[in-house]
Design brief:
heterodimer, A: 285 residues, mainly alpha, 13 helices, B: 421 residues, alpha/beta, Rossmann fold, Coagulation Factor XIII, Chain A, domain 1, 3 domains, 24% helix, globular
Chain lengths: 285, 421
């Protein structure tokens, strides 16, 4: 009898979508799938705007890594005379700049993405997570441009790439996961606390010096190496160097495993925090 | 027709913090925590910043059937926009339940997500995607959208070079071609020129009547609500205080509230032209119904009164009172003076003048009133041009689009008959 009654209730609600306090979770993944085209369109918009606005648009993604590489090569390679792991110093710097610039632009752009799209958030429904995620696509195109620059630099130095280059996508994936996790966290925090955006440039600036961008992590004393790997970008950058430069670069497994674990921890925490605060974005923004 | 929206005991609560900042800053949180900790140590208690609960909406229940066109009206802050935001899932309810059948699209603002650097065509794609259209759908409807917007020539121009009219037309065109079962519209018609507004209303009318789609429409434009909606909900302080046939609810709303203007318009501080207004004599003016309620939205063919109070600095000998009605284009529609109708008044320095206008034969639209006070029909005392504004709304079953040719004079007792050839 009871069973029948329950069934009747169900048929009454058939075809209805139910909106209730705290019940938005149910459709989350289905909605995300339904709005996948929006993800594509928003990335497309960001890329279009970035490279359309000015001639500087493209030039900037070329000039920035080149100048950074030049400065780092002079300071760390020529003046400080740090070891270069058997590779020309510019290539050593460039292999690290690839993932680092991807991470830093992704983090700074994505953290502000919710605020800069606030009219959309307060006027239209869609899974909010699409916004910070789609921003990262622009950073990926920048990464592509930088990669071409690296290839040119390697050709100039007649540096033969290693077969381990096939592993690059794996390390790139790791940095994507890290960027996404941090972006979820900071973009959501930014909605609640508007001064977070002043913290991000600091993280990016500071991070560049504590990560092995301008130097090889082999200069870090062995006993500190594991502690140094608490910065998950260390694992990513080392991975890139190992894959591109190849011989002469030792792979420090304990640090790398720590980086992977921390990356996933950050990603999960960021995602959960985003999910928790996401439904209040429209009220707060 | 089945029920497509069912709302049960819906409520939305906001917490208003009485701190002055618009948003919280992390540094304040840290500073406050530190302060509290110090206070705790020192032992001095401090009252926390006051927080107040505010129910933007509460105990809302209603049902909407397929193909219904529901208007939602109410003053600012009555909860109209909150209701639409809950229905379109932008924000979550605090209590209660909404059941929705079918795809829903909300137009809370046309042109959301438009990017100035992108061209018209690119923005159509983007805006369509934001509103929930698939790429295939957008491409299929592209020609129709472009045609409706009338900006063919500028499709490859960045929208930052568009005039605001073109911008709105393009934005609305995308929205108007959404293929959803339920369409939620908030005040989008407040923008754009009159002609385009009429086109939009016509389009929405078509969408609902021909395709059986459900529309929820929020607007301050009572004429638009009346012409588009069959049923109207009147919201006040977060509650639906009246629902029913559009005409009944609108009448109740308009007669009961003097919200269209601030009621009586105060002219004492009006800037005046010294030649035409040597004296600041006309102090206050308003329009009221024959029942004595102040109203600025009137149905065609109804009677109303235009009144003004005057107080001159000296006695006016042989005063002449006048009134001019102009249409929205500033053309004089009609005028009346006390001399015309042979009304003579003795010397006077203050009083209230009432023009009783019976069965005003005006077509729907916006009209402006000028008020005049002369001495002896030759000397200007105080002339105020276009100082009162009122709207004439379509009456009966005709929708606004049947009045889209302009025109001023309403043939109230006209009829149309069919005879044998």
């Amino acid at each position: 009898m009871l069973k029948v009654k329950k069934k009747m209730n169900n048929s009454e609600d058939e075809g209805f979508e139910i909106i209730e306090a705290g019940k938005s979770e149910k459709h989350y993944w289905a909605d995300l799938w339904r709005y996948r085209e929006l993800f594509y369109f928003l990335s497309w918009r960001d890329i279009l705007v970035r490279y359309k606005q000015t001639v500087i648009g493209i030039a900037w993604s070329v000039i920035k890594p080149l100048l950074t590489m030049l400065v780092f090569t002079i300071i760390f390679g020529r003046i400080a005379k740090l070891p270069s792991d058997n590779a020309p110093y510019p290539i050593l710097v460039f292999t690290a700049l690839l993932p680092w610039q991807f991470f830093s632009t992704a983090l700074s752009d994505a953290s502000n993405s919710l605020i800069s799209n606030q009219s959309m958030i307060s006027k239209i429904y869609f899974p909010r997570i699409i916004i910070p995620s789609s921003t990262i696509i622009v950073s990926l195109t920048d990464f592509g441009i930088s990669f071409v620059l690296l290839a040119i630099t390697m050709a100039i130095y007649r540096f033969v790439p290693n077969w381990k280059m096939v592993f690059i996508p794996l390390f790139l994936l790791l940095s994507i996961i890290l960027s996404l996790g941090m972006s979820f966290l900071f973009s959501a925090l930014n909605v609640k606390y508007r001064d977070v955006r002043y913290v991000i440039p600091f993280i990016v600036q500071f991070g560049m010096y504590i990560s092995p961008v301008g130097f090889s992590s082999s200069v870090v004393p062995d006993k500190w190496r594991f502690l140094y790997s608490i910065n998950p970008m260390v694992g990513v950058i080392d991975g890139f160097r190992w894959a591109i430069i190849g011989k002469g670069v030792s792979f420090y497994w304990p640090g790398f495993i720590l980086s992977i674990l921390l990356t996933f921890l950050i990603a999960i925490c960021g995602f959960l925090y985003f999910r928790k605060t996401e439904k209040t974005f429209a009220d707060r923004i | 027709m089945g029920i497509v929206i069912k709302v049960e005991n819906l409520g939305k609560k906001y917490i208003i913090s009485h701190q002055q900042e618009r948003y919280t800053a992390l540094r304040d949180i840290m500073a406050n925590t530190a302060k509290k900790a110090i206070k705790k140590v020192i032992g001095k208690g401090e009252a926390l910043p006051k927080k107040e609960e505010f129910w933007a909406l509460r105990n809302i229940d209603f049902e909407v059937s397929q193909g219904d066109r529901i208007g939602i009206i109410g003053r600012n802050g009555a909860g109209k926009s909150t209701l639409l935001k809950l229905l379109s899932k932008i924000t979550e309810p605090t209590e209660g339940k909404i059941k929705i059948k079918g795809k829903i699209a909300s137009l809370l603002e046309v042109g959301t997500g438009f990017h100035n650097e992108l061209t018209g065509k690119e923005n159509i794609m983007l805006n369509g995607a934001i509103l929930g259209m698939s790429k295939k759908e957008i491409l299929k409807k592209m020609d129709e959208i472009v045609d409706f917007s009338g900006v063919e020539k500028f499709l490859d121009t960045p929208v930052k070079r568009y005039s605001s009219g073109m911008y709105v037309r393009l934005a609305f065109a995308v929205a108007a071609h959404l293929e959803t079962e339920i369409l939620i519209i908030d005040e989008v018609l407040a923008v754009g020129d009159a002609e385009f507004q009429k086109k939009c209303l016509g389009k929405m009318d078509d969408v609902s009547k021909k395709e059986g789609r459900t529309i929820l429409f929020v607007s301050h434009n009572m004429g638009a609500v009346k012409s588009l909606c069959e049923e109207v909900f009147l919201l006040e302080e977060g509650k639906i205080i009246l629902k029913g046939k559009a005409r009944k609810v609108l009448e109740h709303y308009m007669l009961g509230n003097n919200i269209f203007r601030t009621g009586k318009v105060d002219f004492s501080d009006f800037a005046r032209n010294k030649t035409y207004s040597p004296m600041k004599a006309i102090r206050e003016g308003w329009i009221e119904t024959y029942e004595g309620k102040i109203a600025y939205e009137l149905f065609m063919g109804t009677s109303f009164k235009v009144c003004f109070k005057f107080k001159a600095s000296r006695k006016i000998y042989d005063p002449v009172f006048g009134l001019t009605i102009k249409n929205g284009f500033g053309e004089i529609v009609t005028y009346i003076t006390s001399r015309q109708i042979n009304k003579l008044f003795g010397a006077i320095d203050e009083g209230t003048i009432i023009f009783e206008l019976g069965d005003v034969p005006l077509m729907p639209g916006r009209y402006h009133i000028s008020l005049q006070l002369y001495e002896n029909e030759e000397i200007y005392v105080d002339i105020l041009n276009d100082v009162l504004t009122f709207n004439i709304l379509p009456d009966g079953e005709g929708s606004a689009k049947h009045y889209s040719y302009g025109g001023v004079f309403y043939m109230k007792s006209a009829d149309i008959k069919l005879m044998d050839y």
